[in-house]
Queue: 4 jobs
Job 1
Amino acid sequence: MTFSVSSSIEHSGAVVVTVRGTVEHTTIGSLCDTINHIVDQHRPALVNIDLQAVTYIDTTAVGALDACRRSARNGGTNVMLRNASDAVDRTLRMSA
């Protein structure tokens, strides 16, 4: 599965970023750039990162994603991860 990132706005005003494919050192920059752009341009209270279609995430990407989440939080936006598969969730938990 090819890596891709898309975004949409829910009725509540929260932004959903949908991620597909493998998230690793070569693709995490694109995801963080998308999150940063959304926070800078729209200033939403909440960004949900939907990981349902993520097939793999490496520990380097988890660290970069955590840094990106902290930066968004400093700007007043809460970033939440949702719908991670069991395998992706294990990597997220082990890397936290």
Job 2
Amino acid sequence: MSPYLAAEDLSMFGTDPWWLVVIKAVFCFAFLMVTVLFSIVWERKVVAWMQLRIGPNRHGPWGMLQSLADGIKLMLKEDVIVKRADKVVYILAPIVAAIPAFMAIAVIPFGPSGNEVSIFGQRTTMQLTDLPIAMLYVLAVASVGIYGIVLAGWSSGSTYPLLGGLRSCAQMISYEIAMGAAFASVFLYSGSMSTSAIVEAQQDRWYIVLLPVSFIIYVITMVGETNRAPFDMPESEGDLVGGFNTEYSSIKFALFMLAEYVNMVTVSAVTTTLFLGGWRAPWPISTFWEGANHGWWPLLWFVIKVQLLLFFFIWLRGTLPRVRYDQLMKLGWKVLIPVSVVWLMLVATVRTLRNENYDFADIALYVGGGVLVLLLLSFVADMFREKSKAAAEPAEQPAGFDPMAGGFPVPPLPGQELPPVPRRRSRQERELIVSGGPDTHSDGPLTGSTDGKEASDG
């Protein structure tokens, strides 16, 4: 194996007694639930602050129990099942959406892979389990969760939920391709798909520095995968009332909301693991404090990084407007996927040259030369494309667009223009007509007229 690749040592996993495994599983579940409860209050507080409002301030100190009160309120509301719904799928859809959201946290490391902490006298790792293909497991369970949204839209027996489910399916397909390419760049650098090995490979330098393009691509795709603003098209209340959850109420609606926020925490934890050094302390702290990455301290650094990413979600929601659906698809297929594939090829080239013991100057020369050649070819291709487009333009102008051709007004398609609006009469002309003066559009100039007031005066 190349010296640049991290070695996998998963022998410390799978040796814990059953009661310790249960404690770890309960901790992972509690960590997600507490973080979700805090995130809901934090989001409402931050958005209120950005919009110069007060925000929740009634339940608990500083309104910190608002999300708990909302959960109790939703559970006590009437549980309505629409008549046209497929009842079995209608009930199972929120469960299918919520359960996979909790599963990905099982392979996220909260601390070093060694036996760092002691729980009731038992030395163990701060991670529930790990797999040689842990990141593929994360991708798999994230994909399963989308089926809950799709099935909820289909089983409701209504038009708006169906459209929301279809949008969610298209969004998942569009953005998971670029997400997988961003993951592949990390796999090439770390030499492993194990989450603990990926964090260990970032001992000297975090991957946000080595792979900045992969980080940006994954941040965009994780917002799209969680259906958060500005990519919340599956539940767009502006045109779909509420999208896939329009026909849901009570606890089933709460499960959809819970799945969304748990997914936010999960993708934030994955981002921390892949690009932000995982549980490692930030650079200034790790240099002068040797114990920053030992004991229970790594849990603190991990939680801080996750909370910063959650703030990024909140900041996006309070700042950016919702994009149109065609803009969402264009960004996924025409921007993110090509950029992620080209970046993956570039990373693979650099890794191959590094494994062949090429110097950094030679690698920079080869890669820079290849990028310049691609840019030159792209520039030449654009020039020829513009020339061919100009030559292919028809000499005759297309027929004018009639918005009332079908009997009712319709908006113009791209490339069509509405006919000019007739000129509105000026205020003097309207007053003149009301007082009995001539209609300047039909009766000619004012000087040759003997109608109206002038005639009566004569």
Job 3
Amino acid sequence: MDWVRGREIGHGGFATVHLAGAAETCPSGRPPVMAVKSCDAALSSSLRHERRVLSELGHCPRIVRCYGDSVTTERGGEELYNVFLEYAAGGSLADSLKSRGKPLSEAEIRRHARSILEGLEFVHSKGFVHCDIKLQNILVFPRGGEEVKIADFGLAKRAGERLSKDGKQGGVEWRGTPMYMAPESVNCSEYEPPSDVWALGCAVVEMATGRPAWGSQAESNAYALMIRIGVGEEIPEIPEGLSEQGKDFLMKCFAKNPKKRWTARMLLKHPFLALDCVDNDEEVARDCGVVELADSSPRCHFDWVSMQCSRTSWESGSLSPCSEMDSALSFVGELAALEIASDSSSVMDRIGQLASHGRHNWDDSEGWVTVR
């Protein structure tokens, strides 16, 4: 692809970001303006990893799009590796929050949180963990109303994969930004989808207060911050200005036990995000592969029972897969307690048999009716 490097618009520890314009000879499908992330080709392992992750993820409207990569020789013979990305004219959400000098409104927080969760649900469904969710990695696109997308997948990893600092499997490491790290990441170097959800909670607190979730002074002493995160039951302070739904949403993000923490998919159904849901958001959710569990129509009675079990699990805050059968039995037991207008005795007897913890003998064909 023929392109022209423009002015610098950002830089990090290992890469620099410039504006990039497509040359006239480029296919018409290329965007007129892109962001190109570049680094020394000899030190490009992280940037190449980001390119591979974005390629494997594919397109989602809530993730910054990648247009490809190239290697160029700059003036002086320096060889650079370049990745072409969707350009976010609004900068990062951290920049936006800083420039306005005040916290976001709850409506804005809900809208941004929903967008980030839709992106995370897509990432997690593809078997990846972002590992560095923070406001600096959420980019703002002002066109047609402000929307945000997840960026910077340089630290992303496969779910279930443990990597050491030299990249070999089986080791441990710390990765990401301490202010957003989850307890299991601090204590066990565990980076799985629940750690992204914890980081999202920290981002929501920052949007609501204008300050980091653990306080403005926490960054000055990383060791003390790790102790606060990893030891005891302390969680980031829940902003008083949030609605009760917002506070409950954050409590679901900040469950210290990652097994009890709500998933991105569950949080998308939380009442906090449902307050101002619009058709366009539902369309984007479908594009990202988000499944509308609670609103799906059942196609058989087993689907219906499964949906009710999921709803019960959401409301209790416990979604352990091993408890699904207990939840189902409990639900059927509740049905047995209902007053049934017609033929109640036989129906309740039958439901009572089905709700028992003993295994039913399905080989006994007596009493079965053949249907077509």
Job 4
Amino acid sequence: MARIPAVPESEAGVLGRFVYRLARKRFGLVPEPVAIARHHRGLFWSGLVAELALEKAATRLPARVREIAVYRTATVVGCAWCVDFGTMLQRLEGLDVERLRRIADFATDPTYTDAERLAIRYADAMTATPTTVTDAQVAELEAEFGRAGLLELTQVIAVENQRARANHALGIVDQGFDAACAVR
């Protein structure tokens, strides 16, 4: 159970209720981090705008690479909500979610490509405390994905670190998105 309760739809205001309805239509449920953020109207809106902008802008990397890096970050931080939601997003992208169970074996598992392995190692290095990113690693990523792709990868991993750490701190756990999402 989250450390702060979600704002019920009846108390979310007209625009909040509208956002809740859109979220339910898209994901099957209102994401608990969204409903909890409604306690702070400014952060609620800035978070939504930032998430939508990132979603629209992050188009340079293949979805497989981007989503596996985000998923790996969530697992390293230990955010059950992010892992649940990320699994659903990968399924909605048409990606193989069965391989997520084997992410610990990414280095040898044949379902992971070399590009995905680079992205997972980078997610690990960025998520470590302190970070362990090296010049050689960045050069290898730039050679693989180009500068724009490297920047996109860096940004999505950084944002997932923020999300996962905030959700973990607030005690937000999985909601059953993968099973509940009506969009198949």
